[in-house]
Amino acid sequence: MQSNVHPVMAGGDPAAGTPLLRARGLAKSFAGNKVLHSVDLDLRAGEIVGLLGENGAGKSTLMHILSGGLTADAGTIDMDGKPTQFATVSEGIEAGVSFVHQELSVVGALSVAENLHLGRMPKTRQGFVDFTLMRAASGAILERVGAGNIDPRREAGSLRAGEQQLVEIAKAAARKPRLLILDEPTSSLTPHEVEGFSSYVREARAAGAAIIFITHRLEEALSLCDRLVVLRNGAIVSERKPSETSREQLITDMTGKPAIYEHRSRDLTGRTVALSLRKVSDRGHIRNISLDVRQGEIMGLFGLVGAGRTELLELIHGARPLASGEISLFGASVKHSDPSEAVKNGVALVPEGRKTAGILPQHSVRDNAAISSLRRFGGRLFSDRKGDVTRTEDFRQRLGIRMARDTQPISTLSGGNQQKVIFARALMVDPRLLLLDEPTHGVDVGAKSDLYDIVAREAENGLTVIMASSEVPEILALCDRVAILSKGQLAGILEREDMSEDRILTMAFKEH
To answer: Is the alpha carbon torsion for 122, 127, 128, 130 positive or negative?
Structure first.
C-alpha cells in the first residue's frame, strides 16, 4: 500500500493475525478512464477505517468491488486468507459484507418493519407473516442503532431523510455483518442521531466487525476511526492514525494542496438595506424575528436542529405562509404567496438536500440548470432551447462545472458538480437576494472551497446572500455577520469582529 505512515490497527499489535480482508493491486477503468490504480488495502476484525477523498477519488468504485457490485479489472481479494471474488452483491452479503449506500433505497410504501425484513420475513406455523414477531425484532434493531423512537409500523416513505438513513443502517446491522461499509451515513442525521449511530458503530467494532466509514465530515472521522486512509485520483496517498494527524493535514492529503478558506473582508458601510424583516412569524416555527441585511452582505443563519433556519428561509421565499409581520425588499413591502412570486421579485433559493429537494435526477444538466428561468427567457408556448444551451455554457465556465456535455443526466455528475448546477439554476434568474440552505451539504472539501469562492464572488458583485449552515467553520469562513436562532426566535446577531465558535454556540443554546 502506498502510505505516508505505517498501518495502525485497533487493539494490540497491527501485524497480529490474518486480515479479515486483504486487497492487492485493485484496478478499474470505465470507458478507458482509469478510476482505480493498483490499490492495496488490509481490513482487520475489530477496527474502524475512515476512507476519505474528494468526490471522484474512487471511494465508491473500490467499495463496490469489495462488496460484489463490480468486478476489478486487475488485482486480488482474499477473505480469511482465501482468494475471494463476489460475482454479485448477494454473494457478498452471504459472506458477511454489508454496504449501506449514500443513496437511500427504502421501499416507501412498506412499513419500517417490512423494509427491515425484506426477503426474510418471519412466518407463523400456518405460513403467514408473523407481524408481531417482526415488529418486536424491528424495534430491537432500531434501538441498537440509536433509532428507538421510530415506530416499526410507520410507512417508511413518511420518514424524513435522516430516519430513512437509520433504517438502512438498521437493515445492515440486522445481518450482523463481518465487514460493514458505511457511505456518508451521517449526512442527514441530527447530532443526537449521530451520537446513537456512533455508539452502534463502536459496539459493532467491539463485537469483531471490520468497518469502513466513508465521510466528508473530518471531525467525525478523527473522533470515531482507528485509521484514516485517503484516496486521491484512484490511488491511496496516505494512511494515518487520527492521533497523529489533523484536519488540515487530511485536507492537504485529499486535495494535494491546502484547502483552508479565509474570510474575504468587504466594506459594507453605507450599503442599501436589501432585506428587512419586522417581527415576522409563521404559524408555529418562527416568532417575531426582526433583521436587516445589506446589499452585498453574506449573512449567516445558525442554530441547532429545529431552531428555525430552514423555516425562515422558506418564509422569505414564499414556500411558508407569513402569519404576521412585514418583509421588505429594497424598501418595497412584499408578501410572497409562493416561490414563483419570490423569483419574480429577485429572490432565489438553493434548497437543503439536493437529492430530495434539488435535482431532477433523470433529466439533463441543461434541464436542471434552466428549469427556474424557463418563464423568464422562454416564449409563450415554447422554451428557449438555444438560449438554454448558451446560458448553461456561460454558467459552466463561470462556476467551474465539470461535465462532458450539458445533455448528460445530472445524476452522472459528482455531488459537488451537481451542487454547482443548482447554484447555476438559482443564479440564472438574476437574483437580487440569494438564499442558501446548507449549500455545501454532502460535498467534499475541494468542492466546498469552490462553492465558497462562488458565493464570495457573487457577494463582491453586489448580490445579497443569506446562508443557513449547521457548520460553524463555514459560517466563520464566509459570513460578514451571523444571526443565531434558538427555538424559532432570534437569539442575537454577531458582527464579524465578535464572531467565534464559542460565542456562536453559546447563543445557539440560549433557550435550551
So the answer is: negative
The three grid cell numbers given for residue 247, joined into one nine-digit string: 484536519
The CATH homologous superfamily of the domain defined by 21-106+175-255: P-loop containing nucleotide triphosphate hydrolases (3.40.50.300)
| Fold matches, 21-106+175-255 and 273-508 | yes
What CATH code is assigned to 273-508? 3.40.50.300
- Alpha-carbon gap, residue 321 to 314, rounded angstroms: 9
Q: What are phi and psi of 334, to 5 degrees?
A: -130, 150
Domain definitions of the chain by residue range: 21-106+175-255, 107-158, 273-508
Q: Which set of grid coordinates corresponds to residue 267?
A: 466594506
**DSSP secondary structure code for residue 282 in this structure:** -
DSSP string over 54-117: -TTSSHHHHHHHHHTSS--SEEEEEETTEE---SSHHHHHHTTEEEE-SS----TTSBHHHHHT
- The Cα 228–Cα 59 span in angstroms is 13
Query: How many residues are listed for the chain in this entry?
Result: 512
Please list the pLDDT of the chain residue by residue as tens digits (512 residues).
333 433 333 333 344 568 999 999 999 998 777 899 999 999 999 999 999 988 778 998 999 999 999 999 999 999 999 999 899 999 999 999 999 987 778 898 999 999 999 888 889 888 888 999 999 999 999 999 999 999 999 999 898 888 899 999 999 999 999 999 999 888 778 778 888 999 999 999 999 999 999 988 888 999 999 999 999 989 999 999 999 999 888 888 888 876 556 788 888 888 999 999 999 999 888 999 999 999 999 999 998 777 899 999 999 999 999 999 999 999 999 999 999 999 999 999 998 866 555 677 778 888 888 886 655 544 444 444 555 677 788 888 888 888 888 888 888 887 778 888 888 889 988 999 999 998 887 777 777 888 898 999 999 999 999 999 988 888 999 999 999 999 899 999 999 999 998 899 888 886 65
